[in-house]
Amino acid sequence: MLPHFLVVGAEKAGTTWLYDVMRGHHALFLPDTKEVHFFNRRDSNLIETDNFERRGLDWYERHFAAAAPDQIRGEATPMYICDEDAPDRIRKTLKDPRFILLLRDPVTRAISHYRMAIAKSHIDTPLETLIDAGDARVLERGLYASQLERWFSLFSRESTKVLIFEEVMAAPETAMTEIADWFGIDPEPFMEARLGERRNEASGYRSAWAYNASVRGARALRNFPATRGIAKRLKAIGVYDFIKSANRTAPPETKITATDRTRLCDYYRDDVKRVAALLGRDRLPWECAAPAVPADGQDVSELI
């Protein structure tokens, strides 16, 4: 009961939206846990979790036990594209898998990731300091070229459907029809999935500690056979959603200056050119795909 396909990334590039839409299609099966984190060694905060070694293949297969025999099985874990260990583990474990990869403008991806990390108290460092350090969590995740090169060294390009977040959001019906054709399934159920609805919108938390504790608690319940059923029932009756909703508040005001954006663009510009070349495209619809523009000396702050 292993998956036929994986949504492998990137973080903050629409994978939650895609997961929700795909779960509504009767021909597909995705587990009720969006991010299984099986093949990656480290989580989003670079903390070693390594379910691959600690839990084993039987634990992973249980996530797909409820799938019907004729359903196409898959799961979505954005860390797979950027974790150095994940691609080789996938290659050695799955037979002829398919992959979906969403890529987002690395500047807006980094800003979105930074805002999320601030809200969850995973980071308390000014963005300019992270840029200076080339932070592995916020900055390096958007260096897609090396990730793609590693990926394509192990898997055929035909097995990986690369989608551009901005293009998907501009024409979601077209994107989902393309995915349906790729799987050989009826696209109509995708059209009924409220494609224009946003998922996983930015938010703040009244207590970041409570949020992080609830995530760890839910993960612990899911990871053990004796308590996995309890976790599923709690989710089914809406306990998790209630806790999240009660704790959710407006996202914190995180000021991103024009200088920050310019420096991010400078950081990513050469990598964006490499990504375009790897994908066989003349240009990508991203801010840093354009030539550098000399700064005018102004530093106008904006809320992102």
Structure in words:
45% of the residues lie in helices and 11% in strands. It has 304 residues and is an alpha/beta fold.
The SSE string, one letter per element, is EHEHHEHEHHHEHHHEHHHEEHE
Name the helicity range: 40-55%
Which regions are unreliable across 5 or more consecutive residues at pLDDT < 50?
A: 294-304
Class from secondary-structure proportions: alpha/beta
Strand segment tally: 9
Number of helices in the DSSP assignment: 14
Main-sheet strand order equals: 2-3-1-4-5
Return the domain count.
Answer: 1
Highest CATH level, the class: Alpha Beta
CATH topology: Rossmann fold
Strand content: 5-15%
Radius of gyration: 19 Å
Overall geometry:
globular
Tell me the span between the first and last alpha carbons: 42 Å
CATH superfamily: P-loop containing nucleotide triphosphate hydrolases
The biggest beta sheet reads: 5 strands, parallel
Overall pLDDT metric: 86
